[in-house]
């Protein structure tokens, strides 16, 4: 009886174990099927969502003057979906005030991109993949939160216009940007630059530069190397003097220096015959001069706006007063020497 009991117990144990394993196997298979089904549903859902997103993006694509443009304004698009890659033939991104926080790394897929306008968003970073856009002509990122510009941007060999105004923490640029041989327009206003970067001075085609509302304390001595520069905006900085070489900028016709800390105007600037618009308003200049009365054919508005006549008059007055001061000092010195000689 004992042997039979043991045998039956063993069989029962084996049977229970087998049934447990079979149940576990079935449960695992069921779970696997459920997960597979969920993944399949997820893929279908994702694909369906991509189709919906893609369809929505296609509604934003227009063709103007033969150029394919993606235009989105005043909608909420904090990120751009990967489905956008399917529209890689787009030549312009015009995305304004959409709350965009990041330029996607798949930007490199848009090799036909000519204009990238992402102004007035919340972009914090320019990805290094930007360097793949060798056809890009305009990069507009003003009023964002960019604090760093990658050296790869210097690979955008056809870039002509770069705007990085009002990014607040931006205070330097990589030296590689001097490779932008076609760049003629650069806006770096309302940032934290303390000097004009060397790479900017080295830009061979630069014609228009705005560095107003920064923290510029001085201008580079070799500023005259910017031979093609015709417009230079430098208002609201900390400039205390101007280098004499600024007078050698033969192409310069517009110079705005209002609200700085300038104490003088270089006399050599009197010979800048191409200078048509200049503004020295709100600077603590050494001499307080008053312009002579207007002639009948002069216009008050032009005189007030350009300040060119003021510049010439100030230089003449400074030269005259400087000469008078020198004469006075010389006379005092001679008189002092004469009295000393008499006492001897």
Automatic annotation (TrEMBL):
InterPro entries according to UniProt: Leu-rich_rpt, Leu-rich_rpt_typical-subtyp, LRR_dom_sf, LRR_domain-containing, LRR_R13L4/SHOC2-like
**By its UniProt entry, which SMART domains does this protein fall under?**
LRR_TYP
Q: Where in the cell is it found?
A: Cytoplasm, Myofibril, Sarcomere, M line
The Disease resistance R13L4/SHOC-2-like LRR domain, residue ranges = 107-211
The answer to whether the entry has keyword Repeat is: yes
Q: What PROSITE patterns does the entry give?
A: LRR
Q: Which UniProt keywords apply?
A: Cytoplasm, Leucine-rich repeat, Muscle protein, Repeat
Provide GO CC annotations from the record. Answer: M band
Any one Pfam family match given in the protein's UniProt record, by short name: LRR_14
Signal sequence annotation:
none
SUPFAM superfamilies cross-referenced by the UniProt entry: L domain-like (SSF52058)
Summary of the function given for this chain in its UniProt record: Component of the sarcomeric M-band which plays a role in myocyte response to biomechanical stress. May regulate expression of other M-band proteins via an SRF-dependent pathway. Important for normal contractile function in heart.
- The identity of this protein, by name, is Leucine-rich repeat-containing protein 39
